[in-house]
Protein: Arginase
Amino acid sequence: MKVKQKTVSILSVPFDLGAGRKGVHLSPNAILQAGLEQRLADAGVSCVLEGEVVPPSTGKGKQNTADNLKNLEEVVTVNEKLADRVEAVVRKGQFPLVLGGDHSIAIGTLSGLTRHYKNLGVIWFDAHSDLNTAETSPSGNIHGMSLAVGLGMGDPRLTKIKEGGHPIKSKHVVIIGARSIDEGEKAYINDSGVTCFTMHDIDQMGMEEVIAQTLDLLRDTTDGIHLSFDVDSLDPLEAPGTGTPVKGGVSYREAQFALRLLHESGLITSAEFVEVNPTLESDNATAEVALEFIASLLGEQIL
Ligand SMILES: NC(=[NH2+])NCCC[C@H](N)C(=O)O
Ligand SMILES: [Mn+2]
Ligand SMILES: [Mn+2]
Structure:
């Protein structure tokens, strides 16, 4: 089935202060330089480069750890800007494709989206669940808290970015690929209604069934579905350039399959690809993998 596609608006967010390791800010350029525009053009996808959401430079490396929220001010500033940019793209009727950056930027993406969508569905590919708050976080790194903020939990300085947007309901959130979940996150998942397909579930059910059940959950109850793709969902053997790798992840083929199925569903209305860190590898391999997946999600065909 060929669905008439919207124009894809690419927003770069070269931000790394939500993560514990430096370098993930180089990712948007690494993905663009790997040939993203040409690849999409070849696949018949029209896209526009929206440029960068420029992060504040102050505090770089300062790591203010007050309240177990490292670099809070910078995270708030970049996400406020990103939320406005994403909102503007959606209002133009275009498909926002956000290139992170560390995963804290999902706070801004989700905020912008929920100003438009009344019942946003979220598919969160990740080795982690990013459901910590300052109280439960073992690290104070805000990239481990972004899904919690999206669900309205956590420090008010973060959750206020979502004010004015429609709340995301926990039953509309599906995590796929998780294998490193902190104690506080486990407790939340177990009584919140968030769906979490762990690596064990993927082993048992197969990716096709995982995606089928995900779409069944979201198809009739949401008015838009955002894909938030953390490359650490992948097995580090195939995507080593990421700051918090966890072994035993989603294989390249499983992820390709998932993204093609998501494309075929015609239900995905926005996406972000985060946590590629080009400084942790010598050959840009992980940025290239991200590029492959973006192309598949947006409709590139083998034949
Ligand atoms: N987006 C990510 N890579 N998050 C990693 C989070 C790791 C850990 N759970 C923490 O909160 O510190
Ligand atoms: Mn993540
Ligand atoms: Mn992760």
The pocket of arginine (ligand 1) is lined by residues 103, 128, 130, 132, 137-139, 141, 143-144, 182, 230, 232, 244, 275 (CB under 6 Å).
